[in-house]
Design goal:
Helices cover 42% and strands 16% of the residues. It contains twelve helices and 13 strands. Bound molecules: nicotinamide-adenine-dinucleotide and thymidine-5'-diphosphate (TYD).
Length: 353
């Protein structure tokens, strides 16, 4: 049995992971630490609050004393670290929060883990610090370039990617220098339920439901390797169970698509679900490109596949349809998000109308 601290558990992947973990490991203790930034949504975890194995703590990963207290008080042996500022466009307009949370926050967590697990008499010999990272640390691939492996040199291009790269290096250093039992995963773009509607797929789903424009940056030919969030959660589970300490693992979907293909697929599904508004493709609007926009990401998952038996199981078109249906059936989750800060962000990023 494990006792886990899940940072960023009220965010998109963290919330999916907490649901996944408690469904598959109902005996385990799960403590979520989340600052509830604009991207965190307590409602994503509400159905778990009846469980006595679950606890939500509203707090910041930069608060080292709080993290140390939680590790001691709950005798936590595992940290799965999702908390981050995660949106590239926001990192372009305001990088400071990315440095503070992704670099300093990760460092505060590492210091707390070292203090409690290694220094206080070595009281937790069987511990694990799993750091959740991104393929964006590897930079941009050309068409036909070899997909990212675990030994591809880091070459981050956005402040977001640079801050994640820095946090990955800190995790590695704490393993090499202090012997902290760490693992790391670098994953491709996720989609699925509970995703804040600023990223491409949920933004387009919400705009399709509101009959509003679908903004496509540049020529729409940038490529991402899309993975259903449940497959990402399974990959992390395999690493926690059998991953080698000190190792990093790439997790991908083997599912490269241009942004235009992704948005066209969403439109085609919406045409079936909502034929009275077809064709939804008419809502596509090409807008000014993102500065420094990485052309292509693609993950080579051979290591996690051969070492740990990882295999993504969600077919993309089925996963997309289920995701659209989730947003249709969970309006009470996303409608409250659309006012206030979100409105301001949309205006800043996309301009009026
Ligand atoms: P998200 O933006 O949806 O959620 C981030 C969560 O972290 C939110 O709940 C937020 O409140 C919380 N948080 C932010 N700053 C905090 C702080 N200082 N202290 C405590 N909590 C804080 O992010 P996501 O998409 O779920 O991504 C989770 C992790 O996975 C990130 O580390 C991201 O880099 C990585 N990742 C994401 C993707 C993707 O496609 N979304 C792909 C690969 C890797
Ligand atoms: P995003 O979901 O922001 O993820 P990331 O930048 O981490 O890959 O963007 C996915 C792709 O979609 C990326 O190439 C940028 C593009 N994009 C648009 O074309 N329009 C949009 O409104 C957004 C948010 C993204």
């Amino acid at each position: 049995m494990r006792s886990m601290l899940i940072t960023g558990g009220a965010g998109f992947i963290g919330a999916n992971f907490v649901h996944y973990w408690l469904a598959h490991h109902p005996q385990d203790r799960v403590v979520v630490l989340d600052a509830l930034t604009y991207a965190g949504n307590h409602a994503s975890l509400r159905s778990l609050e009846v469980r006595d194995t679950f606890r939500f703590v509203h707090g910041n990963i930069r608060d080292q004393q709080l993290v140390e207290r939680l590790l001691r008080e709950e005798r936590l042996d595992t940290i799965v670290h999702f908390a981050a500022e995660s949106h590239v466009d926001r990192s372009i307009l305001g990088p400071d929060a990315f440095i503070e949370t992704n670099i300093l926050g990760t460092h505060a967590l590492l210091k707390a883990a070292r203090q409690v697990w290694l220094e206080a008499g070595g009281s937790m010999p069987h511990h694990r610090f799993h750091h959740v990272s991104t393929d964006e640390v590897y930079g941009s691939l050309g068409i036909g370039g070899q997909s990212f492996t675990e030994i591809t040199p880091y070459s981050p291009n956005s402040p977001y990617a640079a801050s994640k790269a820095a946090s990955d290096h800190l995790v590695r250093a704490y393993r090499q220098t202090y012997g902290l039992n760490t693992t790391l995963s670098n994953c491709s773009n996720n989609y699925g339920p509970y995703q804040f509607p600023e990223k491409l797929i949920p933004l387009c789903i919400i705009n399709l439901l509101k009959q509003e424009p679908l903004p496509i940056y540049g020529d729409g030919k940038n490529i991402r390797d899309w993975l259903h969030v449940a497959d990402h959660c399974r990959g992390i589970e395999l690493i926690l169970e059998n991953g080698k300490p000190g190792c990093s693992y790439n997790i991908g979907g083997n599912n490269e698509r241009t942004n235009l293909q992704v948005v066209s697929a969403l439109c085609a599904i919406m045409d079936e679900l909502n034929p009275e508004f077809a064709p939804h493709q008419r809502l596509v609007k090409f807008v000014t490109d993102r500065p420094g926009h990485d052309r292509r990401y693609a993950i080579n998952s051979r290591k996690i596949t051969s070492e740990l038996g990882y295999r993504p199981t969600h077919e993309f078109m089925i996963g997309l349809r289920e995701t659209i249906e989730w947003y249709i059936n969970n309006k009470s989750w996303w409608q409250p998000i659309l006012s206030g800060e979100y409105k301001d962000w949309m205006k800043l990023q996309y301009g009026e109308g």
